[in-house]
Amino acid sequence: MNRPLQPPQAGPHHPRRKGSWRTLSGLRALVTGGSSGVGAAVAAELCRCGVQVLATARRTEALEQVAQSAAAVGLFPLRTLAGDITQPEFRALVVAEARKLLGGIDIVVAAAGSGAIGPFSSADPQTLRQIMEIDFFAPAELVRACLPSLSESPDPAIVLVGSILGSHPLPLHTEYCAAKSALHSLAGSLRVELAPAGIDVALARLGPTQSAFWENLLRGEKPVWSRGPTMTSAAAAAAIVAGLRKRRLDIVPGWTAKGYCFAARFCPRLIDAVVTRRLRLSR
Ligand SMILES: NC(=O)c1ccc[n+]([C@@H]2O[C@H](COP(=O)([O-])OP(=O)(O)OC[C@H]3O[C@@H](n4cnc5c(N)ncnc54)[C@H](OP(=O)(O)O)[C@@H]3O)[C@@H](O)[C@H]2O)c1
Prior knowledge:
Strand order of the largest sheet: 3-2-1-4-5-6-9
Helix content: 40-55%
Number of helices: 8
Shape: globular
Radius of gyration: 19 Å
CATH architecture: 3-Layer(aba) Sandwich
CATH class: Alpha Beta
Number of strands: 9
Structural class: alpha/beta
Distance between the termini: 57 Å
Bound molecules: NADP nicotinamide-adenine-dinucleotide phosphate
Order of helices and strands: EHEHEHEHEHEEEHEHH
Strand content: 5-15%
């Protein structure tokens, strides 16, 4: 059951065909945040595409449920490992287990994340540190730990799950926006740095998505402007997996997210004006 399949071979026999779509079947993926929402849906979707997946998160039971549902659609059993991804020892264990159980790592999807809402002035400094740990340091250091494995892969890819708020920040999301914007920068820098090694670095900029995100906030509650239309985690995951297949490096699922990113680029002050007005009206 735990015996790894023959890993895909790198080198001249399996040259990286960067012009063509990526064949996902037979690849091996590590997915964080695999116990719920987008991470769970990505893990299940990759399984459905014939990818061998190791999914991680802290909650063992939730991970097992995801593995059970994936068993109905996947070619391979979804492997799970429970632990806190902000801990360096757990990250080292995850990488070692991926090598042992899957035989290597071709794809890393860093979806684990958490939010916090509320005025920065009254927030506990610890909240900023916690958010930076889960939303920035953990994915950054996981990627670093995975690089030796990825460099042995015939067709390696990293997907960092960011947010449209990393492209233009909103008030009361200060810690989260700062962490996601740092993650976006990391993706941009690594994308160029790792291109000569053939490692694709994609950024998924998600908009409002149905998940347990708002129940798991480290602080505060869903603000008024986040109560509009949302997309399902399954739809966001399908866009991420399609992006992997099509070698997209900027994945923006859905029209709400696309519209926000367009406004963030071409008329950022308009977003500020709309949000300031809604903030004033909500008081
Ligand atoms: N939902 C949205 O509207 C939205 C919008 C933009 C971007 N995003 C991003 O999408 C990603 C996925 O979020 P989601 O919406 O799917 O929320 P979610 O349902 O709350 O999922 C978050 C996942 O992260 C895991 N996690 C949190 N802290 C962890 C830790 N310290 N160690 C290990 N795993 C941890 C959780 O598992 P455990 O609790 O079991 O550890 C869970 O599997 C996040 O990066 C989020 O920032 C979400």
